[in-house]
TrEMBL record:
Organism: Salvia divinorum (Maria pastora)
Reaction equations catalysed: 3-cyano-L-alanine + 2 H2O = L-aspartate + NH4(+)
GO function terms (MF aspect): cyanoalanine nitrilase activity; hydro-lyase activity
Function comment: Highly specific for beta-cyano-L-alanine (Ala(CN)). Low activity with 3-phenylpropionitrile (PPN). Not associated with auxin production but may be involved in cyanide detoxification.
EC number: 3.5.5.4
Active site: 58
Family statement: Belongs to the carbon-nitrogen hydrolase superfamily. Nitrilase family.
Protein name listed in UniProt: cyanoalanine nitrilase
Length: 330
């Protein structure tokens, strides 16, 4: 795998400073075992550079179906639509399941906190999910995307408030908001209220306008933002007709860039610590001084001294929303 060489800072003796790495890489589409092998290599590379936290892009395991419409238009499905979904479904993972065990082993063997974007299946519904592991290989929990964007709703279900965790870990308070959910002001506010300090933003938006979005979040929340995106070439997806990037396909060559990444690490001040990378696959690494969170909150605390709960307030429903509930009269 060709990677972009990105210089990394020297380790800091400050015990409040942790080293974080954002991975920018493509999945092996329709091949989950190969994707897990690639993830293991990338985590090991990050760990060899001293990373304590490694963050992967949205839908890394299972794949982001860029450009696909799954044979569906309003009021119509093509004869191959169900088979397209079946292949994507087979690439998804169960939580828990054997692929989760593999990810736990990777985290344990490399002694890192691992934040991984996956496509989760429950029954026959898929969810865009982020899963969290600690350096002992313990599964901490998951974060399901609340709001799939545009055509993502063809194939992904909707998460609920029961999977919006912030984990209080020895390296800081850790959570994730996925892709365009980061544009949802009330969701961001809820995460700030939970005390998030290391705000992971796995995403698939490779546009330049994503950069001011994540810098604003860092300033607004007084948080470190770790935005991880995939860098993909056309040849990272199966060739046509097995897989079509609708409306693009006629213009593309095997080496055409179809997702340019744009991964970045931003400090609570809004300063860019690493990236953005629009050049290729690679690792972005930065040392995060958690004391910078308090320094930023001095001037602006969105859910503290700069809030006005007498005028503006937010209620968050954290109940799991099940379509069917069973009761017993025994």
């Amino acid at each position: 795998m060709a990677s972009v060489p990105i210089p990394s800072p020297s380790p800091s003796p400050n015990p409040t400073t942790i080293r974080a790495t954002v991975v920018q890489a493509a999945s092996v589409f329709y091949d989950t075992p190969a994707t897990l092998d690639k993830a293991e290599r990338l985590v090991a590379e990050a760990a060899s550079n001293g990373a304590q936290l490694v963050v992967f892009p949205e839908a890394f395991v299972g794949g982001y179906p860029r450009g696909s419409i799954f044979g569906a238009t309003i009021g119509h499905f093509t004869p191959t639509a169900g088979e397209q979904f079946r292949k994507y479904y087979d690439s998804a993972i169960d939580v828990p399941g054997p692929e989760m065990d593999r990810l736990a082993s990777i985290a344990e063997n490399c002694k890192v906190y691992l934040v991984m974007g996956v496509i989760e299946r429950e029954g026959y519904t898929l969810y865009c999910t982020v899963v969290f592991f600690d350096p002992q290989g313990c599964y901490l929990g998951k974060r399901r995307k609340l709001m799939p964007t545009t055509a993502e709703r063809l194939v992904w279900g909707f998460g609920d408030g029961s999977t919006t965790p912030v984990f209080d870990t020895p390296i800081g308070k850790l959570g994730a908001v996925i892709c365009w959910e980061n544009k949802m002001p009330l969701l961001r506010t809820a995460m700030y209220a939970k005390g998030i300090e290391i705000y992971c933003a796995p995403n698939s938006d490779d546009r330049e306008v994503w950069q001011p979005t994540v810098r604003h979040i860092a300033i607004e929340g007084g948080v470190f933002v770790l935005s991880a995106g995939q860098f993909c070439l056309r040849k990272d997806y199966p060739p046509p007709p097995e897989y079509l990037l609708t409306e693009w396909e006629d213009e593309l060559q095997p080496d055409s860039v179809v997702a340019a990444g744009g991964s970045v690490i931003v400090a609570p001040s809004g300063e860019v610590l690493a990236g953005p990378n629009f050049e290729g696959e690679g690792l972005l690494t930065a040392d995060l001084d958690l004391k910078d969170v308090a320094r930023a909150k001095f001037s602006f605390d969105a859910v503290g001294h700069y809030s006005r709960p007498d005028i503006l307030s937010l209620i968050v429903n954290e109940r799991a929303m099940k379509p069917v509930s069973f009761t017993s009269h025994k």
